[in-house]
Write a structure and sequence with these properties.
alpha+beta, Glutaredoxin, 4-stranded mixed beta sheet, 5 helices, 6 strands, Glutathione S-transferase, cytoplasm
Length: 153
Amino acid sequence: MALAEGDDKAEAGVRVLGGRMSPFTMRARMALELRGVAYELLEESFEPRKSDRLLAANPVYKKIPVLLLPDGRAVCESGVIAQYVDEAWPAASAAPLLPEDPYQRAMHRFWTAFLHGRASPITKSLEQVLRCHRFKYDDDFFGVTLILPTQIF
């Protein structure tokens, strides 16, 4: 349900400040998609520096993703965003995004934190590889097409 930038509904609605290739942004986007929440993805560029918008929305960690709500409030960190989406937009006909059992929810939080710690170094390595090569995005939700220089082959 990602809306095109400039769409009137997106202007007044939910926005995700993030990066199309970020696995953490993808987690937040998947939660919104599963709940059918219309949102606009605002691509964040970190070069030459982080934007004032990101620094204002997430002054503690200064990282993506950030869920920007229509009333101006912000929810940071992908796991927290998924929990917020699950509680703020419950779907009567769909299963909850997170387990209902308290123990299972605790295990979900444990494994989310564990994987988050493992994914960050992998993500940084991938970003370094992509910066060494030209790349472009496909229009589909998770599509990434690498265009590698012919000298490699």
